[in-house]
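Q: Predict the bound structure with PRP.
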Amino acid sequence: MEMKEKNVFVMDHPLIQHKLAILRDERTGTKQFRELVSEIAMLMCYESTRDLPLAEVDVKTPVDIAHAKVLAGRKMAIVPILRAGLGMVDGVLNLIPSARVGHIGMYRDPETHMPVDYYCKMPADLEERDVFLLDPMLATGGSAVDAVSRLKELGAKRIKFMCVIAAPEGLKAFTEAHPDVPVYCAGLDDHLNEHAYIVPGLGDAGDRIFGTK
Ligand code: PRP
Ligand code: URA
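A: Predicted complex:
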């Protein structure tokens, strides 16, 4: 995992990079695309949870007592930004099965590219949880910036943002708005086009996950 700047991490693990290359390919169909998003999310979750605190425990094995370590009882929540963030939920839940799942619904207005929020349902005790916000794409940054602001208004204290591909424009907007929130991405791309799509990117993540157009 490479730190690009303070609180911005690019996942350079070979498995993640390999899967990302297939994900980007326009020939990759919906089924494989969905599987890959989930697998990448799982690998990103593994990397981005390296700093979770541990507690020491003694475990009785069939042979003797082992001085072992377990997660230090931190509660977690994962929050996908609808729709495309849903594709990352299973992968993260595979590793953190006890996490609660909140949802934030947002879509970009096709003309203005500004996020429009349409749904929000969170676990009641959000302020006690480590929150992982999930969205495959950070383009202008509008959706993720607003989603984090919403989570903070609802009391979230520790938030990490996990995306698959980030554009420099979105990263700048995000780190300026929320310098306290670490961003983890698998690819840091070149720029946005006139439709605010990431170049080279992978196209429309929601459409590719759900087979819509
Ligand atoms: C996509 C993507 C992000 C957002 C990123 O969602 O999943 O949520 O765009 O763009 P931004 O950084 O410029 O805000 P979209 O609006 O296409 O909605 P969908 O997931 O419902 O397809
Ligand atoms: N949303 C997407 O799904 N793809 C982009 O390139 C930009 C925003």
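A: The first strand starts at residue 2 and ends at 5.
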